[in-house]
Amino acid sequence: MKARVLIVEDDPLMAERYAFDLAAHTVDCVHSGQEAVAALERLTPDAVVLDVHLPDMNGLDILRRIRSAQMPVGVVVVTSQASVRLAVEALQAGATDFLVKPFTPERLQVTIANVVEKQRLSRQVEELTETLREERTNTFYGFIGASASMRGVYRIIEAAAPSKATVFITGESGTGKELCAEAIHRAGPRTGKPFVAVNCAAIPKDLMESELFGHLKGAFTGATGTRDGAASRADGGTLFLDEIGEMDINLQGKLLRFLQTGMVQKVGADSAQKVDIRVVCATNRDPLREVEEGRFREDLYYRLHVIPIHLPPLRERDGDALEIADALLVKLAGEEGKGFRRLERRAAAAIASYDWPGNVRQLENVLRSAVVLNDGPELTLEMLPPVLSTGTRSTPAGLLSEAAAEGIPRPLTAEPALNGSREQVATLVLGSAADLKPLWLIEKEAIEHAIDLCGGNIPKAAALLEISPSTIYRKKITWSEKGLD
Q1: What residues does the Sigma-54 factor interaction domain cover (predicted)?
Q2: What is the pLDDT of residue 155?
């Protein structure tokens, strides 16, 4: 296998000999440490033949730089000193192999071939690991999670995507309404065309008509040039109207006419032009209540509300919070240059148990804050904000507080006075022999109690019990098969 090899050797004749021996590969030669550092920044070699004794620095310092920068390159350290201490130091610094001068051309060729093959196999393993990670992650056009409620959303998106019918998305803030609109666009025949999003809550009502339909030069104060609106820019694609409930009631009539005719008339223009767009809108309000209270036109509501999609809040997406957190942690760590790769068990339990009133947006912000302010391979509970780490809301401690408020029995915290005989203490703690239960029954009761405490949410119950949800599912199947339900 042909590879790129960088030779770092202060003796030009020796470097030339190495290059001749490795003529089957693409070879670059440098003769000092500084040249080596510059070459590593410029080139992407598969292997480095690195002499330890260079005129301006120690070769092992270059090796440490390579490893600290996590360069995917194999390094063969070369020295004229057959020292066990030096060999151990080189290998501890991250050397792939170690050669002592003099060595034969065949020895160098075999060593480089082995290093290159090892690099190739490492890349294959990384690619396979990434592929398996992607396969394990339940993703759908940017969404992460495979809860029953989200699978229902995915089915509606797949069914609605090929149509031109208007889609009306509802859901709390942070549930991913724009992501849903993008999924509809990408899953349908308009995927190669523009996707234009307009946040109706972020644009002043006096400018909203111009933002949607465009304007001619001089149409109003500040209109210094002719400008296309969002509807014209989305021609052939999808127009997403986010927070549609915030649109001024007077503009809603013009939007209704546009939806009925498909004609765009710029502010200040006498004529209109035809556009072909698919309209998707979203709101975090109850649209029917907005209609009843006169803030949203009833005829516009029925014109828009053709295919409704409701995005469930994160607290109703069993098990998805942890899956989203795992994916976000790796993504954010990469963006911020941090080493996080996994969640600590306690942190995972807190994330699984919390209500997430701000939904996925809040979860992402919490994780980003923790990643920015900390580092390490594992994100711990202490790195999360106090609202999670202290058990506020629906963390395990919070759930116990809610249980007490609802009259669910809690364990007694007062210790009994241990002033009786050993037999009396044993009876007090364990009860009589008749009170003892089989271990499987105690386990079954504990699991069922945790499930009841969590309102039937098995992933939350598993987090409280510090076991995997699959363990609960497996045990429930076993109990069912044995008729122990």
Answers
A1: 143-372
A2: 94
Dist. CA 58–CA 84, nearest whole Å: 17
Strand, helix or coil for residue 299:
helix
C-beta atoms surrounding 86 within 10 Å: 16
Distance of alpha carbon 234 from alpha carbon 222, whole angstroms: 24
Q: What is the DSSP string of 389-428?
A: HT--TTSHHHHHHHHHHTT------SPPP--S-HHHHHHH
Alpha-carbon torsion (109, 110, 111, 117), positive or negative: positive
For 152-312, CATH gives 3.40.50.300
Amino acid 291 reads: V
Tell me if residue 7 falls in helix, strand or coil: strand
d(CA 50, CA 39): 13
Distance between CA atoms of residues 9 and 62, nearest Å: 13
Q: What is the pLDDT of residues 104-143, one digit of tens each?
A: 999 999 999 999 888 888 777 766 655 555 444 568 999 9
* In this structure, CATH architecture of domain 4-133: 3-Layer(aba) Sandwich (3.40)
Amino acid letter, residue 337: G
d(CA 180, CA 186): 10
State pTM to two decimals: 0.56
CATH topology of domain 316-405: Helicase, Ruva Protein; domain 3 (1.10.8)
Could you give the C-alpha distances from 21 to 26, 48, 104, 108, 117, in angstroms and in order?
Answer: 12, 14, 9, 8, 18
Cα dihedral 152, 158, 162, 166 in deg (nearest 10): 30
Residue 279 C-beta-side C-alpha neighbours within 13 Å: 21
Neighbours of 131 (CB within 10 A): 10
Distances (CA, A) of 157 to 35, 177, 309: 56, 12, 8
Question: Nearest-CA neighbor of 325 among 314, 313, 335, 336?
Answer: 314
